[in-house]
């Protein structure tokens, strides 16, 4: 009888755990799955904590309900697989605002990550240079080309649309700047439409029409018990052996598979595996790839990341607008780049004691110096800036928490997906039982990370000889 497969997953975030579940479901019975997580906690950027006696997310707070084609997103499918569908809840307040010239204005409708499909609808926030969006007789984007989002939108709609709309929207997701971020990676639907349409307005409308949303259908969801319940359920249902505080320091090819060196130098453990799935950020992945695939490692290690801090405060009965939160353009000159009114946005988090949970995000790519403030100074600055934006002094926090995420958000420069495709092609040709997955390669957001992990798991199953299904 053949020996069971041994698969090592390096990284215990949602990408690695989704891969483990897929392996359990699709790999032959008896497959030995081991997840190595260098920290003492699973989940990566999914972390549910407690503040002032109630639950709060210290990392990602929600997920998209639909995929880009309009179907159910990968994380919703995983949630159903794990028996958690009944715990999905949706925002009770969905209207967000932009800070423009010191005042809050509703985020205009009809945009695609801030890029307008109707110029009149954004006039209250930004003045588009409409005359520049002329039909030049050819598609906006040549086949296989990529540009920064800012370059395309500035050329067609002018600076205000980028600075006041697109930049804060992208900054809220990536902590990066529109002028640096790849259109193809961050806005794939718009990039596809731009290869056909001759105007940017036409491209936005085409992209929106390609993924219609039913009126009233919720865009976002989360889990009533917190997103850590998704992490716990995935770890449990995968049946994998979970190794916490187990840093994988070296990876070497062997005649029959892979050898991993785990743990501290003075007390290292060597383990063997038939296949390895790297579900860690680009830089630690590059270190592990340096031996078996040095050229791949050089490309992977070139990806840069932004660091952020999330400041959460429990405020006694503050005067808050009926908004889910607001975004802050860099041109406003504030430390905070976004704020979420948790207990306004999410009805299930509202508290009978009148405490409101408010979170602010600090840190943009290239501005890491702002994160050198102490926790106390960060809280004080965020409290002061929020009071200024809202036009009323906020009460002193009853409790507060600062979560720092160093190197948290990948910065996808133009050409990113092409580089990733070349890396994966090289691995398939020379190292088919070694796979890469995660936000560093395929994009941010829980659904993308889940799909990335599942796809990598399927590739490993194929490389090892096919599934049981």
From TrEMBL:
Pathway participation: Porphyrin-containing compound metabolism; protoheme biosynthesis
Entry-linked Pfam families: Amino_oxidase
Residue intervals of the Amine oxidase domain: 14-461
Compartments (UniProt record): Cytoplasm
Keyword check for Disulfide bond: no
Cofactors, names only: FAD
Keywords: Cytoplasm, FAD, Flavoprotein, Heme biosynthesis, Oxidoreductase
Lineage: superkingdom: Bacteria
Entries under Gene3D superfamilies matching the protein: FAD/NAD(P)-binding domain, protoporphyrinogen ix oxidase, domain 3, Protoporphyrinogen oxidase, mitochondrial, domain 2
GO molecular function annotations of the record: oxygen-dependent protoporphyrinogen oxidase activity
EC number: 1.3.3.15
Purpose: Involved in coproporphyrin-dependent heme b biosynthesis. Catalyzes the oxidation of coproporphyrinogen III to coproporphyrin III.
Family: Belongs to the protoporphyrinogen/coproporphyrinogen oxidase family. Coproporphyrinogen III oxidase subfamily.
Name of protein: Coproporphyrinogen III oxidase
Species name: Micromonospora halotolerans
Gene name as annotated: hemG
């Amino acid at each position: 009888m053949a020996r069971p497969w041994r698969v090592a997953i390096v990284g215990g975030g949602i990408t690695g755990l989704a891969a483990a579940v897929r392996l359990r479901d699709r790999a032959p019975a008896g497959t030995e799955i081991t997840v190595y997580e260098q920290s003492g906690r699973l989940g990566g950027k999914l972390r549910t904590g407690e503040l002032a006696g109630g639950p709060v997310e210290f990392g990602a707070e929600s997920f998209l309900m639909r995929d880009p084609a309009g179907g159910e997103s990968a994380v919703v499918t995983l949630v159903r697989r794990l028996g958690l569908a009944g715990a999905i809840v949706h925002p009770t307040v969905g209207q967000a605002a932009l800070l423009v010239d010191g005042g809050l204005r509703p985020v205009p409708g009809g945009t695609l990550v801030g890029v307008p499909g109707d110029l009149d609808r954004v006039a209250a926030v930004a003045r588009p240079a409409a005359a520049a969006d002329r039909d030049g007789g050819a598609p906006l984007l040549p086949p296989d080309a990529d540009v920064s989002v800012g370059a395309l939108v500035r050329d067609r709609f002018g600076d205000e649309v980028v600075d006041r709309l697109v930049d804060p929207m992208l900054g809220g997701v990536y902590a990066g700047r529109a002028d640096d971020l790849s259109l193809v990676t961050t806005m794939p639907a718009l990039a596809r439409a731009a290869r056909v349409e001759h105007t940017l307005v036409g491209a936005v409308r085409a992209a929106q029409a390609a993924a219609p949303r039913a009126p009233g259908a919720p865009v976002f969801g989360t889990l009533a018990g917190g997103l850590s319940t998704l992490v716990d359920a995935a770890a449990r249902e995968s049946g994998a052996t979970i190794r916490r505080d187990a840093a994988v320091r070296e990876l070497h090819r062997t005649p029959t598979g892979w050898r991993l060196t785990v743990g501290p130098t003075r007390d290292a453990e060597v383990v063997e595996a038939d296949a390895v799935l790297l579900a860690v950020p680009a830089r630690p992945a590059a270190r592990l790839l340096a031996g078996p695939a040095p050229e791949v490692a050089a490309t992977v290690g070139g990806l840069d990341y932004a660091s952020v801090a999330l400041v959460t405060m429990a405020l006694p009965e503050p005067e808050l607008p009926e908004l889910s939160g607001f975004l802050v353009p860099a041109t406003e000159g504030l430390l905070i780049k976004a704020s979420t009114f948790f207990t306004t946005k999410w009805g299930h988090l509202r508290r009978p004691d009148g405490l409101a949970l408010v979170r602010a995000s600090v840190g943009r790519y290239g501005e890491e110096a702002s994160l050198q403030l102490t926790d106390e100074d960060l809280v004080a600055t965020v409290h002061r800036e929020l009071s200024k934006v809202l036009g009323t002094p906020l009460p002193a926090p009853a409790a507060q928490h600062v979560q720092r995420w160093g190197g948290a958000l990948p910065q996808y420069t133009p050409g990113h997906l092409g580089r990733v495709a070349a890396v994966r092609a090289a691995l398939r040709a020379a190292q088919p039982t070694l796979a890469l997955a995660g936000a560093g390669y395929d994009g941010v957001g829980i659904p993308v990370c889940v799909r990335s992990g599942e796809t990598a798991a399927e590739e490993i199953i194929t490389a090892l000889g096919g599934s049981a299904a």
